[in-house]
Amino acid sequence: MRPSPPLPPTEGTFFASWITFGPHLEAVKIAVRFTDIASSVLREGNYSLPLSFFCTVNEKGSVSLRGSDLHTPAPAYAPYIAPLTSQLNKSFPVGNSPWEQFEPAPNETQLSIHSVPLAFLTEDEYQLLPYLHESIRNARRVSILSSPYLNPDPESRSQKSTTSVVVSVSPPNGEQLLPSISLFS
Questions:
Q1: The whole model's pTM is what?
Q2: What number of other Cβ atoms are within 10 A of residue 75's Cβ?
């Protein structure tokens, strides 16, 4: 049996934003120490998935954790997000400027689809996703995650016969929509 391919790095990454939003004075110390701290939190919770991580602190002070096992997605760590965030804030206290709760790293590709006939779409941007989701799924067997209009102004769109939309898909699905797609005949 062939082993499954590794996940893209972003699918195994989660991060906590720093409320202060700037370089952290102890960024290197956090990056070095928090990998072991995070592993300890999971070990104490009898977590069964891999406990080894890579940690970085970016120029805005956000802490990112990526599992060293490239087959474990970030959402698998969801039950331990609150304890990990709590331990980050306890281990590296920063007064009234703590880190926000860890969340999975953004992991989507955005693509523009042009010349979509307005006659087949809803004016309500919040109802656009069901219209496009079904058509794109039927055309390419791809599920989209979101689909706002490229031009957010409904009044200027109403004066045209076609419009452009931006669809968000998982990175592997993005390739299936390229180089073009035909929707609504």
A1: 0.59
A2: 13
Local confidence pLDDT in tens for the 185 residues of the chain:
566 666 666 677 888 888 887 888 899 999 999 999 999 999 998 888 788 899 999 988 899 998 888 888 888 888 888 999 999 999 998 777 788 998 887 777 888 889 888 888 888 877 888 888 888 888 888 888 888 889 888 888 888 999 999 988 877 788 888 888 888 76
Residues 41 and 118 grouped into a single domain: no
Residue 3 lies in a domain: no
Q: Is 5 in a helix, a strand, or coil?
A: coil
DSSP 48: -
Residue 43: both structure tokens together: 């070990």
Please indicate, yes or no, whether residues 92 and 49 belong to a single structural domain of this protein: yes
Domain count, the chain: 2
Domain that holds residue 147: 109-177
Tokens of 123: 């004016």
CA distance 67 to 10: 10
Same domain, 77 and 95: yes
Whether 134 and 83 map to the same domain: the answer is no
Q: How far is CA 71 from CA 5, 50, 95, 109, 116, in A?
A: 8, 10, 36, 20, 37
